[in-house]
Amino acid sequence: MKRVTTVFISLLLVACHSSNPIKLVYPDKIYQQTEWTENELKKEIAIRHLHRTANTSTHLIRLNGKEFPHYHDRHDLNISVLSGTSIIHFKDHEVSLQPGDVTFIPKGTYHWAENTGSIASVVFAAFSPAFDGKDKRRAE
Fold this sequence. Notes:
Elements: H1 2-19, E1 24-26, E2 29-31, H2 38-42, E3 45-52, E4 57-63, E5 70-71, E6 76-83, E7 86-90, E8 94-97, E9 102-105, E10 111-115, E11 121-128, E12 137-138
Antiparallel strand pairs: 1-2, 3-4, 4-11, 5-12, 6-9, 6-11, 7-8, 7-10
């Protein structure tokens, strides 16, 4: 009976997830589902750059492993978890994240993320100002 209940709940969750896929809405485009390439699926961290202005850049990040502890000295970061589970680590504490959770990381904050599920987690990340890929200083 326990196995039947577990299978039923799993199927229900899959049905709920597939019937309401998350949309990322931009004025000129709607991203409904991301198909990751074979190369991206092999990476611990894959990044899709979505949009960029002088003030902000937005990205989809697929995390299948973990980041190294680091700082962004010039960028604030907002993260929304779209799928999967992970932990965001700070200098003196950590927080478990699941779909729907939002994290704000002000510039200069020690942090790193770690996937905790059996599948990769995917987040929507917004950097302000726009991220150039260079402002990631490893923690000592």
